[in-house]
Design brief:
Mean pLDDT: 80
Number of strands: 8
CATH superfamily of one domain: Intergrase catalytic core
CATH topology of one domain: hpI Integrase, Chain A
Radius of gyration: 35 Å
Length: 445
């Protein structure tokens, strides 16, 4: 019998690990559990190298960050530039020749209020999708509404897109960030009864014609303030919108309207013509000075300033009529609602308002058109009604008890919405959606 020998335990196979090459760097955990990744840059022309270190909660994130830092350094990117420095010295100055002065001022104000306080001291190269998401959460805690945060994402995405184009960063960290949802706010517009109430109260105001023109044309506030006598043709009944009056750092300046389509011709009804003619007779436009050529001016003959109008006239009228919270811009919404309620085609409304496209008009006022589908279905119905010739013949007995078929209505030639027209009728008046304003000096419904 052969003696048994104890079998030797098998040794676990040793996993082969590639030896790190020169310059690969290392990745390890420090005493706090944070992953630390280190890597060397390539030698420069002068022969020197630089060791780069990055941190992260996981090994993968630490490696990703150190590789990005190395790439930025090797491409010659400025990894030390702060966000506030980038906004003040790069992005905002680049907008000087590409947007209107007022738009540039809005950009600067938004950067000062919502960008610098949250990201100003961070380095541009350190911005990641996670950092941007955390910033949005912090903004919400600080009271920023969903609309502001949506605007912030769009604003910063545009700014960082320029940073990528200029070679300051490799990737836009907001490309993978979704804009927060925001509830659509209802549009405030005056009903016909409220219009009558408001204009009754404004009839004794020296700017009564301004309010009538705002409701009857839908012009923006700046377009009304910048209206020139040479652009108002009371004989042929139209207004040429060529300017907008803007308050730029306390200085009133005439500039082109908001968009390309904002330079437009707007027809006006007979009542508005009469009101404007009476206004010009009672308050002749100045022929010299800063208010020369303006249709609407202050008591001192100067161009209107928004703050003065709201404080001295508009707010007073709202308190007198108790209409609640109404903005001057809501008179523009009122004009659009009147036209759409009368079945005017949205394309005509878009042209009168000067919107860049009909999609903007539909997005804003589609809720005012609840009957559009019902009208379309009503007009489509006759197309599917069989004619008497197509109906099957019935036996005499059955035919005597059957209901008599009603001949179908002829299908309409056009199932679209009726288009608005400003052509005068036989009497020379201009009828339309604003016809209820015509009559006495004050409108009646």
């Amino acid at each position: 019998m052969q003696p048994t020998t104890a079998t030797e335990p098998t040794k676990p196979k040793r996993r082969h690990r590639r030896r790190a090459r020169n310059g690969d760097g290392s990745c390890y955990r420090d005493s706090n559990g944070t992953w630390v990744a280190q890597r060397w840059t390539k030698p420069t022309a002068a022969g020197g190298r630089r060791r780069v270190r990055a941190y992260g909660p996981t090994e993968a994130q630490a490696l990703e960050r150190v590789l990005r830092k190395v790439a930025e350094l090797e491409l010659g990117l400025d990894t030390e530039m702060l966000v506030e420095t980038f906004m003040a010295t790069k992005y905002l100055p680049s907008k000087a020749d590409t947007v209107r002065v007022t738009t540039k001022g809005n950009y600067e104000a938004f950067s000062r209020l919502w960008v610098v306080p949250f990201l100003g001291k961070r380095k541009l190269a350190e911005l990641t999708p996670l950092v941007m998401e955390e910033t949005l959460i912090e903004m919400a805690k600080q009271g920023a509404t969903a609309d502001i945060r949506r605007k912030w994402v769009g604003y910063m995405r545009s700014a960082l897109r320029r940073a990528v184009a200029w070679g300051l960063i490799l990737k836009n960290p907001l490309d993978d960030v979704v804009k927060p949802r925001s509830a659509k706010k209802p549009i405030r517009f005056l009903t016909r009864a409220e219009i009558t109430k408001f204009l009754d109260a404004a009839h004794s105001d020296r700017l009564f014609a301004l309010y009538v023109t705002a409701i009857a044309t839908g012009l923006r506030q700046g377009e009304l303030f910048g209206l020139q006598t040479a652009d108002v043709d009371l004989e042929r009944g139209f207004i040429n919108v060529r300017y907008s009056l803007a308050d730029i750092e306390g200085e009133l300046t005439l500039q082109p309207p908001k968009t390309r389509t904002s330079t437009r011709r707007v027809d006006i009804d007979q009542h508005t013509i009469d009101v404007l003619r009476e206004h010009v007779e009672k308050h002749p436009p100045p022929t010299e000075g800063r208010g020369a050529g303006f249709v609407f001016t202050s008591l001192a003959g100067l161009p209107l300033r928004r703050s003065n109008l709201i404080r001295r006239s508009f707010s007073t009228l709202l308190r007198k009529t108790r209409l609640g919270k109404v903005r001057f811009h809501d008179l523009r919404h009122t004009h659009a609602s009147l036209l759409l309620a009368e079945g005017v085609h949205p394309k005509v409304v878009q042209e009168r308002l000067g919107h860049a496209g009909i999609s903007m008009t539909m997005d804003l006022y589609s809720h005012l058109l609840p009957s559009m589908q019902g009208d379309a279905v009503t007009k489509l119905g006759p197309l599917f009604t069989p004619t008497p010739q197509a109906m099957p013949s019935l036996p005499p007995k059955a035919r005597s008890g059957a209901r008599q078929a009603v001949p179908p209505a002829l299908p309409p030639a056009d199932i679209g919405l009726p288009a608005a027209t400003s052509a005068p009728d036989d009497d020379g008046d201009r009828p339309g959606a604003l016809a209820f304003l015509v009559g006495t000096g004050r409108p009646t419904v």
